[in-house]
Every structure is written in structure tokens, then in C-alpha cells.
From TrEMBL:
Cofactors that this protein relies on: [2Fe-2S] cluster
Binding of [2Fe-2S] cluster, residues: C206, C211, C214, C224
Native source species: Methanoculleus sediminis
Stated name of the protein: Dihydroorotate dehydrogenase
Keyword Iron on entry: yes
Signal peptide (UniProt feature, chain positions): none
InterPro entries xref list: Cyt_c3_hydrogenase_gsu, Dihydroorotate_DH_ele_sf, Dihydroorotate_DH_Fe-S-bd, FAD-bd_FR_type, FNR_nucleotide-bd, PyrK_electron_transfer, Riboflavin_synthase-like_b-brl
Domain FAD-binding FR-type: 4-91
Gene Ontology biological process terms, A to Z: pyrimidine nucleotide biosynthetic process
Length: 254
């Protein structure tokens, strides 16, 4: 796939994973490393970055115009996809994954590849736990729900204290940034921030490092090109957990 031009793909299957999350399967394989993303063009609406949940799929939560338009689509409809982009997760040895909400999506390829030993999965409520059965079949799974309807009653970050971080060579994290910030604080306190790998979400226009819309303070790192996965020590004392930017470039609080 030419990285600068969107390729038309046909949606072959739509899977309702949870009440708010759907997987869109398409008819073209995208060779990618776990954690890489693609730019998805929804004709007439927008082009937005989305993580790959498999070589043939994206898993999406309805949160804006583009995702709402996707949710209105049917099998047989067509979208444009270009990529993959970014660095993805580079892991070795024993790996702990921490996923919150739809943040489990870019972590699923790690699970599918047999690269995750323990997975901490969180959601607001039991019905929103994403890929629970698939993860349980491939890794040790610990679950947390905000309302206590499944697993630990509380935030998934509270499960981090229940595992021995010294047992893991890498800790891969994706989810709401406030959740990831809490995980980074734990890793920093335990002296292992550099073993954390955090997948960031930022507003993007080009996806290839040219426009600068996803640059982060204070180092100017581009989420699309230098990320989206960054080690925890790089994120310490950065904008991470504090603010991001909207389409106009204005700061907005996380």
C-alpha cells in the first residue's frame, strides 16, 4: 500500500464488540507491527488516525463526526485507508499490557502474536470490556470495572499495584490519557518508567510527520512519526497528561 495515497477497501463485516464499540473488517490486508495505525478516510466527512486491531480491521468507538459516519455504514460500503504509520510496540521478554476502554484495540495484535503474558483490562462497566474472551484465551487476564460489575471494583490503574512490575521487561499501555498518566506515575515511583510503552492519541492531519499538528511539548516529537508509542521516561515532564491540541492548534486540557 502506498503510504501517501488512500486505498479503497470494502467493509466485509461489522462486529458489535460492546454497546459503544464496533470492529470494521475490510477486504485488504495491511501488514503492520502491533501498535501501528492507519489514516482512515470516511468519504465526505474526514480522515482520522485509527489503530489496527488486526491486519484486516479497525476497532472504533463512536466519539466524533468521522466515527459517527462509520457507525452509519453497512457491509459493502467503502472507505479509504493509508498507512501503516508510526513505530508500534517493540517488546521482548515478558510483557504486561494495560488497556482501558477502546485502548485495548492497538494492544490486541500483541496478544494475538502471543507476546503478552498478563493483561490488565478496564472499562466503565462489564458490557464495555473489549476483547475480554479473546484476551483470556491467550494471556493471564485481570479485569477492573468502574462500577464493579466485573472484576475489581475500581480503576484498572489500581490493578497495577497487584502485579510485580519486576517480573516484566515491558509494560504496554493504551487508553484514556488520564489513565495512562496514572500508570506512568506508578512506574516512575517504582523506578521503571523506561520500561513503559505508551500509545498516544493526538490530532493529526498528514500522518507522515510533515504538518506538525501532532508535535508534543517540550521536545517537538511528532506522534505520527516518532510515536505513537513512546517510552515512559520520554513522557515524564512533557505535555502528556496535561494538555493536547485541537484542529486549530489551541491547547485543551486532558
Amino acid at each position: 500500500m502506498h503510504e501517501q495515497m488512500p486505498a479503497g477497501v470494502t467493509i466485509t463485516e461489522i462486529v458489535e464488540e460492546t454497546p459503544s464499540i464496533r470492529t470494521f473488517v475490510f477486504d485488504r490486508e495491511i501488514e503492520a507491527r502491533p501498535g501501528q495505525f492507519v489514516m482512515v478516510w470516511v468519504p465526505g466527512v474526514d480522515e482520522v488516525p485509527m489503530a489496527l486491531s488486526s491486519p484486516f480491521s479497525i476497532t472504533v468507538q463512536k466519539v466524533g463526526d468521522a466515527t459517527a459516519a462509520l457507525f452509519a455504514m453497512h457491509e459493502g460500503d467503502r472507505i479509504g485507508v493509508r498507512g501503516p504509520y508510526g513505530n508500534g510496540f517493540a517488546v521482548s521478554g515478558r510483557t504486561l499490557a494495560v488497556g482501558g476502554g477502546v485502548g485495548a484495540s492497538p494492544l490486541l495484535p500483541l496478544v494475538t502474536a502471543g507476546l503478552v503474558d498478563t493483561f490488565l483490562l478496564g472499562a466503565r462497566t462489564a458490557s464495555e470490556l473489549l476483547f475480554e474472551n479473546r484476551i483470556r484465551g491467550a494471556a493471564t487476564l485481570m479485569v477492573a470495572t468502574d462500577d464493579g460489575t466485573a472484576g475489581h471494583h475500581g480503576f484498572v490503574t489500581e490493578l497495577v499495584s497487584r502485579v510485580d512490575l519486576a517480573d516484566f521487561d515491558h509494560i504496554c499501555v493504551c487508553g484514556p490519557e488520564i489513565m495512562m498518566t496514572a500508570v506512568l506515575a506508578v512506574l516512575d515511583r517504582e523506578g521503571c518508567a523506561e520500561r513503559g510503552l505508551f500509545s498516544l492519541h493526538r490530532y493529526m492531519k498528514c500522518g507522515v510527520g510533515l504538518c506538525g499538528s501532532c508535535c508534543t511539548d517540550p521536545h517537538g516529537l511528532r506522534v505520527c512519526r516518532d510515536g505513537p508509542v513512546f517510552s515512559g521516561d520520554v513522557l515524564l515532564d512533557s505535555e502528556f497528561g496535561h494538555y493536547a491540541r485541537d484542529a486549530s492548534g489551541s491547547r485543551r486540557r486532558i
